[in-house]
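Give me structure tokens for this 318-residue protein.
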Amino acid sequence: MLDLLSDILTSLSMRASLYFRTSFTKPWGVAVPNYENVARFHFAHRGGCLVSVDGVEETVSLAQGDLIIIPHGSSHDLYCGHLPKKTVMPLDSVLEQSGYDGTGVLVYGGDESLSETQLICGHFSFEPHAKHILIERLPPFIHLRNYGEHAGKWMEATLRVIGDEAGGHRLGGDLIALKMSEAILAQAIRSFIESNDAPEWGLGGFSDANLRRALDAFHKAATQNWTVETLAQAAGMSRTSFAVLFQKKMAMTPMEYVTSWRIEVAKNILLRPQMTLTDAAEGAGYASDSAFARVFKKETGMTPAKFRKSQTTDRAVV
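Here you go.
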């Protein structure tokens, strides 16, 4: 049985794509464009740099061993700090000037070879239809300092392996790096929701011991007839205390969470071949097709049939 975080990330159909390992020398700067339905990461394997995320006043100083996650795919600049207005170039231009063909290491920058910055950069894509507050409410960036040491020896070793394998020439190296990078995002999200910053973003319930018990119980049996009362029992709390704490920690009611997750489950069922409206209704915990269809339209703005058609069309275009 999947645990809470694993269940959510699996439902979102997260897929990792490691897009380059770098060797940058001063002066250098890269403008990474905005992409929808992705989360990006940059790990400072050697050296450091500055990171400026679009819409955020704060400039992040990424030191060696630091990891930054940009969960909403926002455009951002990576640069060495030397005259950024002149040195920051669009990513496409950097790729063209460097002659990078998608393999090996992206080598770019000036002549100061002693100032090398090695980054491991990648992104995680999510299905366009997939939604969950755990991703939607994350801040514009998550900066984890000295990440390898903070996450434990196993993560430090993982990052070293990714640095060695990504863009290398050994058989299976890219696949190994990709699979390990998926663990990085899960670990980074877990670190954030366990931090003191999570409640500020409406994610405090995932680290609260009582609410976590209720959320775990719900995710392991989402089709059961859940009520605020039964969720409170799973949390070991009174109904009123549970409802108040859930609203405070999650900025939504318990049943709003239940409904939103059931709709996500239903979306995944609807997109499977040969699955019917009844299959989706039952798989999401609804007793009748009509009740399910009403809730689905209220939550998504379209009927289940229209949703299936829109997603099928989008995939055919891609």
